[in-house]
Design goal:
The complex is a heterodimer of chains A (85) and B (310). Chain A has 85 residues and is mainly α. Helices cover 38% and strands 5% of the residues of chain A. The model of chain B has no long low-confidence stretch (mean pLDDT 88). The chains are: A mainly alpha (85), B alpha+beta (310).
Chain lengths: 85, 310
Protein backbone atom coordinates (compact mmCIF):
# COMPACT_ATOMS: atom_id res chain seq x y z
CA UNK A 1 0.00 0.00 0.00
CA UNK A 2 2.83 2.31 0.96
CA UNK A 3 4.64 1.61 -2.33
CA UNK A 4 1.44 2.39 -4.22
CA UNK A 5 1.11 5.80 -2.51
CA UNK A 6 4.74 6.69 -3.24
CA UNK A 7 4.35 5.62 -6.87
CA UNK A 8 1.19 7.67 -7.22
CA UNK A 9 2.92 10.78 -5.83
CA UNK A 10 5.85 10.36 -8.19
CA UNK A 11 3.47 9.89 -11.14
CA UNK A 12 1.50 13.06 -10.24
CA UNK A 13 4.72 15.02 -9.80
CA UNK A 14 6.04 13.90 -13.18
CA UNK A 15 2.76 14.71 -14.92
CA UNK A 16 2.73 18.18 -13.32
CA UNK A 17 6.30 18.80 -14.39
CA UNK A 18 5.58 17.59 -17.95
CA UNK A 19 2.48 19.85 -18.16
CA UNK A 20 4.42 22.83 -16.89
CA UNK A 21 7.23 22.32 -19.37
CA UNK A 22 4.79 21.82 -22.27
CA UNK A 23 2.98 25.04 -21.40
CA UNK A 24 6.28 26.92 -21.12
CA UNK A 25 7.34 25.68 -24.54
CA UNK A 26 4.02 26.70 -26.17
CA UNK A 27 4.14 30.19 -24.69
CA UNK A 28 7.75 30.59 -25.74
CA UNK A 29 6.83 29.90 -29.39
CA UNK A 30 3.58 31.86 -29.54
CA UNK A 31 3.44 35.30 -31.36
CA UNK A 32 4.40 38.23 -29.18
CA UNK A 33 1.56 40.62 -28.18
CA UNK A 34 1.50 44.14 -29.63
CA UNK A 35 3.24 46.78 -27.56
CA UNK A 36 0.89 48.38 -25.06
CA UNK A 37 1.33 51.80 -26.67
CA UNK A 38 -0.41 50.63 -29.85
CA UNK A 39 -3.37 49.08 -28.10
CA UNK A 40 -6.54 51.06 -27.63
CA UNK A 41 -7.65 51.32 -24.06
CA UNK A 42 -10.95 52.33 -22.58
CA UNK A 43 -9.37 55.43 -21.11
CA UNK A 44 -8.06 56.58 -24.50
CA UNK A 45 -10.58 55.56 -27.13
CA UNK A 46 -9.46 55.58 -30.74
CA UNK A 47 -11.51 57.88 -32.96
CA UNK A 48 -13.27 55.93 -35.68
CA UNK A 49 -13.97 57.44 -39.09
CA UNK A 50 -17.52 58.71 -39.42
CA UNK A 51 -19.74 56.28 -41.27
CA UNK A 52 -22.41 57.56 -43.61
CA UNK A 53 -25.93 56.64 -42.59
CA UNK A 54 -27.15 53.59 -44.41
CA UNK A 55 -30.66 53.52 -45.77
CA UNK A 56 -32.70 50.71 -44.38
CA UNK A 57 -36.24 49.49 -44.52
CA UNK A 58 -36.84 50.22 -40.87
CA UNK A 59 -35.72 53.83 -41.21
CA UNK A 60 -38.30 54.75 -43.75
CA UNK A 61 -41.35 52.65 -43.15
CA UNK A 62 -42.21 53.01 -46.82
CA UNK A 63 -40.72 49.81 -48.23
CA UNK A 64 -37.83 51.86 -49.49
CA UNK A 65 -35.55 49.48 -51.33
CA UNK A 66 -32.46 49.21 -53.48
CA UNK A 67 -33.39 48.75 -57.09
CA UNK A 68 -32.08 45.45 -58.42
CA UNK A 69 -31.37 47.02 -61.79
CA UNK A 70 -27.72 47.74 -62.26
CA UNK A 71 -26.70 51.12 -63.63
CA UNK A 72 -26.50 50.87 -67.39
CA UNK A 73 -24.72 53.23 -69.70
CA UNK A 74 -25.04 51.37 -72.98
CA UNK A 75 -28.49 52.63 -73.87
CA UNK A 76 -28.98 54.96 -76.78
CA UNK A 77 -29.40 58.50 -75.45
CA UNK A 78 -33.09 59.45 -75.49
CA UNK A 79 -33.83 63.05 -76.38
CA UNK A 80 -35.72 63.50 -73.13
CA UNK A 81 -33.57 63.46 -70.03
CA UNK A 82 -34.00 64.30 -66.38
CA UNK A 83 -31.21 65.14 -64.00
CA UNK A 84 -32.00 68.40 -62.32
CA UNK A 85 -31.57 71.83 -63.79
CA UNK B 1 -42.40 63.10 -82.65
CA UNK B 2 -41.43 66.71 -83.39
CA UNK B 3 -39.02 68.56 -81.13
CA UNK B 4 -38.49 72.24 -80.35
CA UNK B 5 -35.76 73.48 -78.02
CA UNK B 6 -34.86 76.83 -76.56
CA UNK B 7 -33.40 78.34 -73.41
CA UNK B 8 -35.44 80.02 -70.69
CA UNK B 9 -35.52 80.13 -66.89
CA UNK B 10 -31.73 79.58 -66.93
CA UNK B 11 -32.22 76.07 -68.26
CA UNK B 12 -32.86 74.15 -71.46
CA UNK B 13 -36.47 73.74 -72.47
CA UNK B 14 -37.53 70.85 -74.70
CA UNK B 15 -40.99 70.63 -76.24
CA UNK B 16 -41.97 67.45 -78.05
CA UNK B 17 -45.27 66.50 -79.61
CA UNK B 18 -47.01 64.18 -82.04
CA UNK B 19 -49.36 65.80 -84.53
CA UNK B 20 -49.71 67.82 -87.70
CA UNK B 21 -46.44 69.64 -88.37
CA UNK B 22 -48.03 72.95 -89.36
CA UNK B 23 -50.19 73.01 -86.28
CA UNK B 24 -47.28 72.00 -84.09
CA UNK B 25 -45.01 74.72 -85.46
CA UNK B 26 -47.53 77.34 -84.37
CA UNK B 27 -48.21 75.57 -81.06
CA UNK B 28 -44.50 75.37 -80.25
CA UNK B 29 -44.19 79.13 -80.78
CA UNK B 30 -47.23 79.80 -78.59
CA UNK B 31 -45.89 77.52 -75.88
CA UNK B 32 -42.49 79.18 -76.01
CA UNK B 33 -44.10 82.59 -75.68
CA UNK B 34 -46.13 81.40 -72.67
CA UNK B 35 -43.02 80.04 -70.92
CA UNK B 36 -41.03 83.22 -71.54
CA UNK B 37 -43.89 85.37 -70.26
CA UNK B 38 -44.12 83.18 -67.16
CA UNK B 39 -40.41 83.61 -66.58
CA UNK B 40 -40.93 87.37 -66.63
CA UNK B 41 -43.53 86.90 -63.90
CA UNK B 42 -41.81 84.39 -61.61
CA UNK B 43 -38.07 85.12 -61.87
CA UNK B 44 -36.44 86.55 -58.76
CA UNK B 45 -33.51 87.72 -60.91
CA UNK B 46 -35.59 90.23 -62.85
CA UNK B 47 -36.11 93.39 -60.83
CA UNK B 48 -39.48 94.15 -62.43
CA UNK B 49 -40.92 90.63 -62.27
CA UNK B 50 -44.09 90.23 -60.27
CA UNK B 51 -42.25 88.03 -57.78
CA UNK B 52 -39.55 90.67 -57.25
CA UNK B 53 -42.23 93.30 -56.65
CA UNK B 54 -43.91 90.96 -54.15
CA UNK B 55 -40.55 90.48 -52.40
CA UNK B 56 -40.29 94.26 -52.01
CA UNK B 57 -43.79 94.55 -50.59
CA UNK B 58 -43.02 93.20 -47.10
CA UNK B 59 -45.71 94.12 -44.60
CA UNK B 60 -48.13 95.49 -47.23
CA UNK B 61 -51.01 93.80 -49.03
CA UNK B 62 -49.99 92.96 -52.61
CA UNK B 63 -52.53 92.48 -55.40
CA UNK B 64 -51.35 89.39 -57.23
CA UNK B 65 -52.09 88.06 -60.69
CA UNK B 66 -54.13 84.84 -60.79
CA UNK B 67 -51.00 82.89 -61.77
CA UNK B 68 -48.82 84.15 -58.91
CA UNK B 69 -51.64 83.68 -56.43
CA UNK B 70 -52.25 80.11 -57.66
CA UNK B 71 -48.58 79.16 -57.35
CA UNK B 72 -48.26 80.64 -53.85
CA UNK B 73 -51.43 78.92 -52.70
CA UNK B 74 -50.05 75.64 -54.05
CA UNK B 75 -46.68 76.33 -52.43
CA UNK B 76 -48.29 76.92 -49.06
CA UNK B 77 -50.18 73.64 -49.36
CA UNK B 78 -46.96 71.74 -50.12
CA UNK B 79 -45.18 73.53 -47.29
CA UNK B 80 -47.61 71.91 -44.87
CA UNK B 81 -47.69 68.57 -46.70
CA UNK B 82 -43.91 68.23 -46.50
CA UNK B 83 -43.67 69.34 -42.89
CA UNK B 84 -41.74 72.43 -43.96
CA UNK B 85 -39.05 70.59 -45.97
CA UNK B 86 -40.33 72.47 -49.00
CA UNK B 87 -40.09 76.11 -48.03
CA UNK B 88 -39.95 78.92 -50.64
CA UNK B 89 -39.01 81.44 -47.95
CA UNK B 90 -35.37 80.29 -47.76
CA UNK B 91 -34.35 83.00 -50.23
CA UNK B 92 -32.39 85.00 -47.60
CA UNK B 93 -30.33 81.88 -46.89
CA UNK B 94 -29.68 81.34 -50.60
CA UNK B 95 -28.49 84.92 -50.93
CA UNK B 96 -26.17 84.64 -47.93
CA UNK B 97 -24.67 81.54 -49.50
CA UNK B 98 -23.90 83.45 -52.68
CA UNK B 99 -26.85 82.49 -54.89
CA UNK B 100 -27.83 86.12 -55.31
CA UNK B 101 -27.61 86.17 -59.12
CA UNK B 102 -28.74 83.82 -61.85
CA UNK B 103 -27.03 80.45 -62.17
CA UNK B 104 -25.82 81.40 -65.65
CA UNK B 105 -23.92 84.28 -64.04
CA UNK B 106 -22.66 82.14 -61.14
CA UNK B 107 -21.31 79.57 -63.60
CA UNK B 108 -19.03 82.23 -65.06
CA UNK B 109 -16.80 81.41 -62.12
CA UNK B 110 -16.46 84.63 -60.15
CA UNK B 111 -14.91 83.95 -56.75
CA UNK B 112 -17.45 84.75 -54.09
CA UNK B 113 -16.43 86.11 -50.69
CA UNK B 114 -15.96 83.90 -47.67
CA UNK B 115 -19.23 83.20 -45.98
CA UNK B 116 -19.65 83.21 -42.22
CA UNK B 117 -22.91 81.59 -41.33
CA UNK B 118 -24.95 82.94 -38.49
CA UNK B 119 -28.32 81.55 -37.52
CA UNK B 120 -31.04 83.98 -38.54
CA UNK B 121 -34.35 84.29 -36.78
CA UNK B 122 -36.98 85.13 -39.35
CA UNK B 123 -40.60 84.49 -40.13
CA UNK B 124 -41.56 81.05 -41.40
CA UNK B 125 -43.48 80.50 -44.62
CA UNK B 126 -46.61 79.81 -42.59
CA UNK B 127 -46.67 83.54 -41.81
CA UNK B 128 -47.59 84.26 -45.44
CA UNK B 129 -51.16 85.57 -45.67
CA UNK B 130 -53.35 84.75 -48.68
CA UNK B 131 -56.68 86.50 -49.11
CA UNK B 132 -58.72 84.35 -51.47
CA UNK B 133 -61.51 86.65 -52.62
CA UNK B 134 -59.34 89.59 -53.61
CA UNK B 135 -56.27 87.44 -54.42
CA UNK B 136 -54.11 89.59 -52.22
CA UNK B 137 -50.92 88.48 -50.52
CA UNK B 138 -49.16 89.88 -47.49
CA UNK B 139 -45.71 88.82 -46.38
CA UNK B 140 -43.91 89.76 -43.17
CA UNK B 141 -41.26 92.45 -43.51
CA UNK B 142 -38.40 89.96 -43.32
CA UNK B 143 -39.76 87.39 -45.78
CA UNK B 144 -38.45 86.88 -49.30
CA UNK B 145 -39.59 84.12 -51.59
CA UNK B 146 -37.90 82.00 -54.24
CA UNK B 147 -40.33 79.96 -56.33
CA UNK B 148 -37.54 78.03 -58.04
CA UNK B 149 -38.64 74.81 -56.39
CA UNK B 150 -42.18 74.82 -57.74
CA UNK B 151 -42.65 77.36 -60.53
CA UNK B 152 -40.83 75.43 -63.26
CA UNK B 153 -43.11 72.45 -62.72
CA UNK B 154 -46.22 74.60 -62.56
CA UNK B 155 -45.24 76.46 -65.75
CA UNK B 156 -44.49 73.18 -67.51
CA UNK B 157 -47.93 71.92 -66.53
CA UNK B 158 -49.70 74.98 -67.94
CA UNK B 159 -47.54 74.95 -71.07
CA UNK B 160 -48.28 71.28 -71.71
CA UNK B 161 -52.02 71.97 -71.44
CA UNK B 162 -51.55 74.61 -74.11
CA UNK B 163 -49.47 72.38 -76.38
CA UNK B 164 -51.74 69.33 -76.17
CA UNK B 165 -54.52 71.34 -77.85
CA UNK B 166 -52.57 70.90 -81.09
CA UNK B 167 -51.12 67.45 -80.47
CA UNK B 168 -52.14 63.87 -79.77
CA UNK B 169 -49.33 63.54 -77.24
CA UNK B 170 -46.78 66.00 -75.92
CA UNK B 171 -44.20 66.73 -73.29
CA UNK B 172 -42.80 69.94 -71.88
CA UNK B 173 -39.39 69.46 -70.28
CA UNK B 174 -38.15 72.44 -68.28
CA UNK B 175 -34.63 71.38 -67.37
CA UNK B 176 -35.59 67.89 -66.24
CA UNK B 177 -38.98 68.78 -64.74
CA UNK B 178 -41.37 67.40 -67.32
CA UNK B 179 -45.02 66.87 -67.98
CA UNK B 180 -46.05 63.89 -70.10
CA UNK B 181 -49.50 64.06 -71.72
CA UNK B 182 -50.74 61.13 -73.81
CA UNK B 183 -48.34 58.56 -75.26
CA UNK B 184 -46.02 58.80 -78.27
CA UNK B 185 -47.39 56.99 -81.30
CA UNK B 186 -46.90 53.23 -80.98
CA UNK B 187 -45.34 53.46 -77.52
CA UNK B 188 -46.49 52.15 -74.15
CA UNK B 189 -44.46 54.68 -72.22
CA UNK B 190 -42.23 57.73 -72.53
CA UNK B 191 -38.51 56.94 -72.65
CA UNK B 192 -36.54 59.28 -70.41
CA UNK B 193 -32.83 59.12 -69.75
CA UNK B 194 -31.93 59.32 -66.07
CA UNK B 195 -28.81 61.46 -65.98
CA UNK B 196 -25.81 60.16 -64.06
CA UNK B 197 -25.05 62.87 -61.45
CA UNK B 198 -21.37 61.89 -61.47
CA UNK B 199 -21.08 61.80 -65.28
CA UNK B 200 -23.77 64.11 -66.66
CA UNK B 201 -22.94 63.21 -70.24
CA UNK B 202 -24.15 59.65 -69.54
CA UNK B 203 -27.41 58.08 -68.46
CA UNK B 204 -27.57 55.79 -65.46
CA UNK B 205 -30.55 54.08 -66.99
CA UNK B 206 -33.49 54.75 -69.27
CA UNK B 207 -36.85 55.11 -67.57
CA UNK B 208 -40.13 54.13 -69.20
CA UNK B 209 -42.84 56.32 -67.69
CA UNK B 210 -46.57 56.54 -68.30
CA UNK B 211 -48.35 59.91 -68.58
CA UNK B 212 -47.90 62.14 -65.55
CA UNK B 213 -44.94 64.22 -64.43
CA UNK B 214 -41.30 63.58 -63.58
CA UNK B 215 -38.89 65.93 -61.81
CA UNK B 216 -35.34 65.62 -60.53
CA UNK B 217 -33.55 67.48 -57.77
CA UNK B 218 -29.77 67.23 -57.75
CA UNK B 219 -27.09 68.62 -55.47
CA UNK B 220 -24.54 68.71 -58.29
CA UNK B 221 -26.35 70.76 -60.94
CA UNK B 222 -26.74 74.18 -59.34
CA UNK B 223 -23.58 74.38 -57.30
CA UNK B 224 -20.87 77.01 -56.90
CA UNK B 225 -17.80 77.85 -54.88
CA UNK B 226 -17.98 80.35 -52.05
CA UNK B 227 -14.81 81.05 -50.10
CA UNK B 228 -13.40 77.74 -51.34
CA UNK B 229 -16.45 75.79 -50.18
CA UNK B 230 -18.75 73.99 -52.57
CA UNK B 231 -22.35 75.15 -52.15
CA UNK B 232 -25.52 73.86 -53.73
CA UNK B 233 -28.97 75.38 -54.03
CA UNK B 234 -31.02 72.85 -52.08
CA UNK B 235 -31.32 74.54 -48.72
CA UNK B 236 -32.44 72.58 -45.69
CA UNK B 237 -35.01 74.91 -44.09
CA UNK B 238 -34.28 73.38 -40.69
CA UNK B 239 -30.83 74.95 -40.51
CA UNK B 240 -30.52 77.35 -43.47
CA UNK B 241 -27.58 75.41 -44.90
CA UNK B 242 -27.17 73.41 -48.12
CA UNK B 243 -28.78 70.06 -47.38
CA UNK B 244 -26.39 67.42 -46.03
CA UNK B 245 -27.86 64.38 -47.74
CA UNK B 246 -26.72 60.93 -48.83
CA UNK B 247 -28.44 61.38 -52.20
CA UNK B 248 -26.83 62.99 -55.22
CA UNK B 249 -30.19 63.22 -56.92
CA UNK B 250 -33.81 62.24 -56.41
CA UNK B 251 -36.26 61.78 -59.27
CA UNK B 252 -39.94 61.80 -58.37
CA UNK B 253 -43.02 60.85 -60.32
CA UNK B 254 -46.41 62.41 -59.57
CA UNK B 255 -49.60 63.11 -61.50
CA UNK B 256 -48.81 66.86 -61.44
CA UNK B 257 -45.47 68.47 -62.21
CA UNK B 258 -45.48 70.83 -59.24
CA UNK B 259 -45.96 67.84 -56.91
CA UNK B 260 -43.13 65.94 -58.60
CA UNK B 261 -40.82 68.93 -58.27
CA UNK B 262 -41.70 69.61 -54.65
CA UNK B 263 -41.44 66.00 -53.51
CA UNK B 264 -38.17 65.41 -55.37
CA UNK B 265 -36.69 68.29 -53.42
CA UNK B 266 -38.23 67.31 -50.07
CA UNK B 267 -37.15 63.67 -50.44
CA UNK B 268 -33.60 64.74 -51.24
CA UNK B 269 -33.40 67.15 -48.32
CA UNK B 270 -35.16 64.82 -45.89
CA UNK B 271 -33.08 61.76 -46.84
CA UNK B 272 -34.05 58.25 -45.88
CA UNK B 273 -35.20 59.26 -42.43
CA UNK B 274 -38.04 61.43 -43.70
CA UNK B 275 -39.10 59.44 -46.77
CA UNK B 276 -41.72 57.34 -44.98
CA UNK B 277 -43.42 60.35 -43.43
CA UNK B 278 -43.32 62.33 -46.66
CA UNK B 279 -44.92 59.59 -48.73
CA UNK B 280 -47.52 58.56 -46.17
CA UNK B 281 -50.86 59.31 -47.75
CA UNK B 282 -49.28 59.79 -51.20
CA UNK B 283 -49.41 56.40 -52.92
CA UNK B 284 -49.45 58.20 -56.26
CA UNK B 285 -45.88 59.39 -55.78
CA UNK B 286 -42.86 57.24 -56.54
CA UNK B 287 -39.19 58.06 -56.54
CA UNK B 288 -35.72 56.90 -57.50
CA UNK B 289 -32.63 58.14 -55.67
CA UNK B 290 -28.98 57.97 -56.68
CA UNK B 291 -26.44 57.61 -53.88
CA UNK B 292 -22.82 58.75 -53.79
CA UNK B 293 -21.63 55.59 -55.54
CA UNK B 294 -24.12 55.98 -58.36
CA UNK B 295 -26.37 53.18 -57.11
CA UNK B 296 -30.10 53.39 -57.61
CA UNK B 297 -32.59 53.19 -54.77
CA UNK B 298 -36.32 53.50 -55.00
CA UNK B 299 -39.66 53.53 -53.28
CA UNK B 300 -41.60 50.27 -53.19
CA UNK B 301 -43.65 51.34 -56.22
CA UNK B 302 -40.70 52.68 -58.20
CA UNK B 303 -40.30 49.68 -60.50
CA UNK B 304 -43.86 49.68 -61.76
CA UNK B 305 -43.83 53.45 -62.23
CA UNK B 306 -40.38 54.02 -63.72
CA UNK B 307 -40.15 50.80 -65.73
CA UNK B 308 -43.70 50.70 -67.01
CA UNK B 309 -42.69 48.73 -70.11
CA UNK B 310 -41.65 45.62 -68.17
Amino acid sequence: MKHLKVGLRIWIALCSLAGFLTGWAMLAHSPKPAPAAQTASLEQPVQLPALPPMPSFSQTGSNFQPLPLQPQTSFAMPRLRTGGS
Amino acid sequence: MEYYEFRAMNTNIVLAADGNLDNLTRAFEDTRRYIQQSEQRFSRFLAQSELSRLNRSGGEWFEASPDLYAVLKLAQSYFYQTGGLFDPSILPDLKRLGYDRSMDELRLGEILPVFVWQPQLRSGFDALQLEGESQRIRMPDDMEIDLGGIAKGWIAEQAAKLLIQSASACTVNTGGDMVLLGLPAGQKAWEIGLEDPLHPEQNLTVLAVRPGAVATSSVVKRSWLQGGKLRHHLIDPRNGQPADTIWLSVTAYAPQAAAAEVFAKALLIGGTGQAGGLLAGHPEIAYIAVDGQGKLWGSHNSQEVFYANQ
